[in-house]
Amino acid sequence: MEIPIFTVDAFTNLPFKGNPAAICLIENELRDDLYQSIAAEMNLSETAFITRRNSMDFSSGARFGLRWFTPTSEIPLCGHATLASAAVLFYLKKNVNPVLVFETMSGELCVRQHEESLIMDFPLNKPNPQDQHEIKDLLKVAVGDVPIQEVCYSPTTRKLMIRLADTCSRSELTSLKPEAEALLKNESTGKIKGVIVTMKGAPTAQPGYDFYSRYFAPWVGILEDPVCGSAHTVLAAYWSEKLNKKKMLAYQCSSRGGELGLEVRDDGRLNISGQAQIVLQGTLKI
Questions:
Q1: CB distance 176 to 214 below 8 Å
Q2: Catalytic one of 46, 187, 224, 259
Q3: Could you tell me one molecular function GO term of this UniProt entry (predicted)?
Q4: What string of DSSP letters covers 48-109?
Q5: pLDDT, tens digit, 9 for 90 and up, residues 147-187
Q6: Which phi and psi angles does 19 have, rounded to 5°?
Q7: Cβ–Cβ < 8 Å for 80, 237
Q8: 185 phi and psi, to 5 degrees?
Q9: Active site residue 46
Q10: Phi and psi of 238, rounded to 5°?
Q11: In angstroms, rounded to a whole number, what is the distance separating the alpha carbons of residues 68 and 66?
Q12: pTM of full prediction above 0.85
């Protein structure tokens, strides 16, 4: 069996920046263990598998199946690998449709082109305030002695969000180095699958980011996800309310960086926009 495979850097306009995803075009569904083996082989934060629907090809079809796997497990929602999947279909396969619809574990996700960016229609996941005392040891492992302003939790995504105090500098966020083993040791209940650390940005500066963030998820086999789109379904809900803004620009402060445009819509969903660079294409032989 031969499977077309691509590596796409998402949420960036430069190669080797943003968040890399492996994208596989699948003619027929594979066994779950084979999906997982391929994702482990690729060893990126996520590998996405696009399958055809209604016997259409990848250039003319408008509806596709989409699944995402980390090196260790399948996940219910992934932003950057969805963006990367649409980039392969629009840019390489020259898909003729104005909108692509992906059928996923999180429902239908639509992606369209707009100038040099791709815009994804995603769910919005509002987090709830979390008692810091209940998870004080986990917070200590995640951010050390850096002061915390607020902690929230999203039950839908099982993501914990830690907002650093407004007195913190961006360098304090970028210098965090939580250890995977310590995070796993201090949270083994299954309630938390990822930790978002965020802080208020500097919208008056250029290019004017409204907030910064980083994302850690050793519970699904990823110590740090370079740019996590699904985390921004939580962040956008939180920061839109705190900043009283529907449109925001966000930056993920991993070593690779990444920029996301966010728009909280009146219908309760979220537009996530970003650019993508296809850096590798080849054939997976099984």
A1: yes
A2: 46
A3: isomerase activity
A4: EEEEESTT--TTT-SEEEEEEE-SS-EES--HHHHHHHHHIIIIIS----SEEEEEETTEEE
A5: 999 999 999 999 999 999 999 999 999 999 999 999 999 99
A6: -120, 115
A7: no
A8: -65, -35
A9: yes
A10: -70, -55
A11: 7
A12: yes
